[in-house]
Known about the structure:
2 copies of one chain form a homodimer. The first copy, chain A, is an alpha+beta fold. Chain A has helices at about 15-20, 30-40, 50-60, 85-110, and strands spanning about 30, 65-70, 75-85. In chain A, strand 2 (about 65-70) and strand 3 (about 75-85) form a beta hairpin. The radius of gyration of chain A is 15 Å and the shape is globular.
Amino acid sequence: xxxxxxxxxxxxxxxxxxxxxxxxxxxxxxxxxxxxxxxxxxxxxxxxxxxxxxxxxxxxxxxxxxxxxxxxxxxxxxxxxxxxxxxxxxxxxxxxxxxxxxxxxxxxxxxx
Amino acid sequence: xxxxxxxxxxxxxxxxxxxxxxxxxxxxxxxxxxxxxxxxxxxxxxxxxxxxxxxxxxxxxxxxxxxxxxxxxxxxxxxxxxxxxxxxxxxxxxxxxxxxxxxxxxxxxxxx
DNA sequence: GATATATATTTAGGTAGTCTAGGCATAGGA
DNA sequence: TCCTATGCCTAGACTACCTAAATATATATC
Lengths: 112, 112
């Protein structure tokens, strides 16, 4: 994925929302999801494989995403995930939670 | 502290910064630190005692804060914490990390 | 043909930090 | 006297993340 130097404990809880967001506009395979997050955050968020794949299984087990094996445009075997209806609801909830949470923290932590 | 209904895994990693911030303008005892955080975040962040006190010991062990037993203005025994120099440095670092991290997440997660 | 690299997935085991759920003690008010 | 809010402590569970390894293959390069 990347050289990576641990992204502090701050990622906790946000990975799932980021994954779901990456699927909001159509299916993507796991590896591409990780890339999308890293690209979108300018590498501020490092997505470790040992975090990403377990997160995908978790979310699949909860019915937030669904998987299907397919072929990438570069002709490689990959597992494509897509958001379920339930996942879309979750994304909305978690996005709102993030907004409220980050605003609250920033209000306290950052200089007025 | 409060009725409390778990504040999701999002708190992970930010509690220490919030604690240090609460001490930036002078010593406070543990219970008051928790109150300060809850008040300052409008109860968005619920500070459980089982999270707070272990965090305080951790931070004391790392030399970020120092403790001293004292008396509250309501005449009760309490342990007062204050930021060390090292703690002040940590607070700066963690505040910057939070700013970068939350901006990155929000950029990806929140509607443009 | 051989080798290297980027892509793509899997998983075991460790770690860190939070929460649950209890405990104790006391000041002040009803 | 009892209740509530204040104030601290801690064992054990849980969850999610990370480390570190393994596997497989398409494509480019030598």
